[in-house]
Write a structure and sequence with these properties.
Number of helices of chain A: 16
Mean pLDDT of chain B: 86
Order of helices and strands of chain A: HHHHHHHEHHHHEHHHHH
Largest sheet of chain A: 2 strands, antiparallel
CATH architecture of chain B: Orthogonal Bundle
CATH topology of chain B: ABC transporter involved in vitamin B12 uptake, BtuC
Largest interface: A-B, 42 and 41 residues
Mean pLDDT of chain A: 88
Structural class of chain A: mainly alpha
Shape of chain B: globular
Number of strands of chain A: 2
Strand order of the largest sheet of chain A: 1-2
Oligomer: heterodimer
Low-confidence stretches of chain A: none
Shape of chain A: globular
Distance between the termini of chain A: 39 Å
Number of strands of chain B: 2
Strand content of chain A: under 5%
């Protein structure tokens, strides 16, 4: 697939998502918002998890932090968009500091440390009642206008964030930074030896991957109008995002978008039809994905699959 | 006097934490897999014990070996058939895989057993010693937890299988060259991890009400204990467990119970950065 084809596919997908209000009801608009939101998170995770190969599980930490910074700013009277910017900046600074500390760890220790951040932030927000409202959660000022206006506003917002993260991904992918990150992914010591400033590269990648989670979080808080600690700092989300990315193909530009789309649509169908068992089925999908599709959907070579099918068919024919 | 009581509570809690985390630590150390199923294994063990007690009137102590055997079987088969296929891949792959398996097990438990908190009530009364008040069932749980952890230590040090597990932990490739069947040892180790989780769950069900909503909390405890104590060794888990129990107990006393968990996790983050080998600093296994 040439880069141009990839960008065309992405552009088409953006048009499909952004145009939902024109051809579908509010149910589909809502789904388009969720898909755009998770695509932005998955694309963000891809920068550290895919390109750099660090198993970061801190997506929910930065998402939740963004939710709370955005919500608190809005409650203090800051206009919505400015509150989102504030959340982005705050999360970026915190991620840079935290990244500089934790990125010295590798492999399992890094994974545990990054998931520990989610837990610590969740516990702090639930117990710091005077600021965050604790377990009662926080109400966020609602956007004025009917449900249609609200849906269209947030669809536009989430799609814009998704496009921004995609552009950042493309720039990283084609630039010096992406090259350095791929070197780190393949062999960090060797990359260090040949002159890649590994610490700086890793911190930049980690910060980039965190800051847009903050934006998405703040936008999510304005959208739903209510946030609480368990919902925003959720372990399920922090693992779901990498799974979506792996489903599409980690370390590729289009993979996260494809993975998120397929996963969210699948999840929606499962929720609608198997309410009691949706978690189990998601688990089964995850297991099958890891066992049988390790490179993600984009790594499947359709020619090989067709050739295999043809061979099997021929064998069946011969046996008969 | 009050502090002695807090310390005693902490030690009892710590012994349970050690038992809860030692299986997780073993699997992490030997297989290099972060087993996200561990929390659900604990709850499954607790539920099996509870239902044996409620439906058939089987005493938890009598049920414990059977629960442990069932969990061992589940762990062994899971590892042999599923996880072994990707066991040497990067951490994210195995972590995601066990998380997927955990979703299945968790879903099964919430649908068939529901998430109502349940507890085996033994009504053993309490003892008072020098002003320290302690329910007997907790004391009983502590002794049981320490005994099980000790048995694992003896097994790893003394038995043929145990030495093979330690050998694989130290150097898998060399162990394979010495004729150890790695995949079988992996399956046995994972089985033992599940067994210890199940046994810990059985003990927990006698001491605290358990519900499937606690799986994440137990898993988090296992993380923290492993990092505090040092990975993949029984003494490490014991030190980590006791340290966490005592710290949580005192943190609850001084800052209020809602902050006890936070202090544990913060300690974990600090230790991760400062001393990733943990307090015991043991590199090899025993």
């Amino acid at each position: 697939m040439t880069p141009t084809t990839r960008y065309l596919i992405f552009a088409l997908w953006v048009i499909v998502l952004a145009s939902t209000p024109l051809w579908a009801g509010n149910y589909f608009v809502r789904m388009a918002i969720t898909i755009a939101m998770f695509s932005a998170l998955t694309l963000s995770w891809n920068l550290i998890g895919g390109f750099t190969g660090y198993p970061s599980l801190s997506t929910a930490a930065f998402f939740g932090l963004g939710c709370y910074v955005g919500a608190l700013s809005q409650r203090a009277g800051v206009p919505m968009i400015l509150a989102w910017v504030a959340a982005t900046v705050f999360v970026a600074v915190l991620a840079a500091v935290f990244g500089a500390i934790i990125l010295r760890l590798r492999g399992h220790y890094f994974a545990i440390g990054s998931i520990g951040l989610v837990e610590v932030l969740r516990l702090v927000t639930s117990s710091w009642g005077s600021l965050t409202g604790g377990g009662d959660g926080l109400n966020v000022p609602l956007v004025q206008g009917g449900p249609n206006v609200v849906a269209q506003t947030f669809l536009a917002a989430m799609v814009t964030i998704m496009v921004i993260v995609f552009v950042v991904t493309v720039l990283v992918d084609r630039g010096r930074l992406g090259f350095g990150l791929r070197c780190i992914q393949q062999n960090e010591d060797a990359a260090d030896m040949v002159g890649v400033d590994t610490t700086r590269y890793k911190v930049i990648a980690y910060t980039l991957s965190a800051m847009f989670c903050g934006t998405v979080g703040a936008a999510y808080a304005s959208w739903t109008g209510y946030i609480d600690p368990t919902d925003t700092f959720s372990i399920l989300m922090t693992i779901k995002v990498p799974v979506m990315c792996l489903l599409g193909g980690a370390g590729t530009v289009l993979g996260p978008v494809v993975g998120t789309g397929v996963y969210m649509i699948l999840e929606e169908i499962l929720w609608a039809n198997f309410l009691d068992y949706n978690r189990a089925i998601l688990g089964a999908v995850t297991v099958l994905l890891i066992l049988f599709l390790p490179g993600g959907l984009l790594r499947i070579s359709y020619k090989t699959v067709l050739a295999q099918l043809a061979a099997r068919f021929n064998r069946l024919g011969a046996a008969a | 006097m009050q502090y002695l009581q807090v310390l005693a509570n902490g030690i009892v809690l710590g012994a349970l934490y050690a038992c809860l985390a030692v299986g997780f630590s073993l699997v992490w150390g030997v297989l290099n897999v972060i087993n996200m199923l561990h929390g659900s294994f604990i709850i499954l063990g607790g539920y099996l014990t509870f239902f044996a007690w409620q439906n058939f009137g089987i005493h938890p102590l009598l049920a414990l070996p059977f629960v442990a055997a069932i969990l061992y079987g589940i762990g062994y088969v899971t590892q042999l058939l599923v996880i072994n296929r990707v066991v040497s891949q990067p951490v994210l792959t195995t972590l995601t895989l066990t998380f997927g398996l955990d979703l299945i097990l968790y879903n099964y438990m919430t649908v068939f057993y529901t998430a109502t908190p349940r507890r085996v009530t033994l009504d053993l009364g309490h003892v008072e010693l020098g002003g320290i008040f302690m329910p007997v069932d907790r004391l009983f749980g502590m002794v049981l937890a320490l005994a099980l952890t000790g048995m694992l230590y003896v097994l790893l040090r003394g038995s043929r299988i145990g030495r093979a597990i330690v050998a694989v932990r130290m150097d898998g490739a060399a162990a394979a060259l010495m004729g150890i069947r790695i995949n079988r040892i992996y399956a046995i180790t994972f089985g033992i991890g599940a067994l210890m989780a199940g046994a810990a769950g059985a003990i927990f069900s006698m001491v605290f009400p358990i519900t499937s909503n606690l799986t994440g909390d137990f898993l988090g405890k296992a993380f923290v204990v492993c990092v505090i104590g040092g990975l993949g060794s029984v003494p490490g888990a014991l030190v980590g467990g006791l340290a966490l129990g005592i710290i949580e107990s005192f943190a609850g006393q001084f800052f209020g119970p809602q902050h006890a968990l936070t202090v544990g996790f913060l300690l974990m983050l600090v230790l991760l950065v400062v001393k990733p080998t943990g307090l015991t600093g043991i590199k090899g296994y025993e």
